Amino acid sequence: MKTNWLKLAALVCTVAVWLSACTGGTKTTTVTDSTITDSTLAAALKPAGPAPEWGKTIKPEMQAVIEKLSSYGDKPLETLSATDARKNHTPTDAVMDLVKQNNITLPTAKVDTLGKDIDVDGGKIHLRIYTPKLGNGPYPLIVYYHGGGFVIANLDVYHASAQALAEQVGAIVVSVAYRLAPEYRFPTAHNDAFTGYEWAVKNAVSLKADPAKIAVVGESAGGNLAANVSIMARDKHIMLPVHEVLIYPIAQADMNTESYKMYEKAKPLNKAMMSWFTEKYLTTVIEAQDPKISLINANLKGLPPTTIITAEIDPLHDDGIMLADKLKAAGVKVDRKNYEGVTHEFFGMAIIVPEAKAAQAYAASQLKAAFK
Fold it and tell me: pTM of this prediction?
């Protein structure tokens, strides 16, 4: 098992955010440290072997991350208990080690962070709040939900994504540590996600945020949660997000889509893992068809404009496409981009993967436009 993981993960994520900020918004910033260039990184990150059978179109930088992740020799997640699975290395660990091996200097963060515990039904959850160091507010507000199949991962694993959004958008980000399964089964994560959103709405002013400029963002399971938060806000008649960004969201329960078939054995997410996540979070098979899990079965009318980001080499690729189509059919404005040659979890890898830098810049530009 790895040591000092959380501290190191946070450090590498800071690096990822820093380089990704070079393409944020409409202004381009030049990196002045001559030792940190795209060409240097590309040369250093040449993959060791051929492209994997499950991803012949994989980009070199993405493959280098996957090779590093595979090098740890962890047991397949789907063969482990949830407790042991949480001890496995993550894609963030792989990025961290590649950054260390390339001797990249760690930059100073452009945000301050603080933690906050809030009450939820039956317990408490933790929030991490990112506030830009520049400006005095009021800032736009983003409520962010991490991935991990409702079972694994935490705020540290997805720190890069949350910090990138705060820095590139110039927004306060509230990252929500909803409770995980199987200790807390469906719909606990969904209810926690909404409670976190409610707290952010009610406390926007005290956070130096503009209560009229609130968006939700989520990755994977978190993308599912973000969409559900918008639905619940609509149904409960509270402040609706002005925009939602859903990054390779879980949107339906059928694991026989074309992307599930094509990328059944992909890394870092495969079909067996998705089955494992489902078994851990849901109590019965019937719950898989619940509109909270199968968003394509939900009433999507009246939801905010939506940005959907998908990865080519991802079992969940078609989930994002199907959800985009359903949203459009419901009259929701949808913008969507697919990134070729990258896998699930690529979004937070901006220090290594150029497509991640581009995706972060795209998400930031969409959010900035929504906040105007």
Answer: 0.90
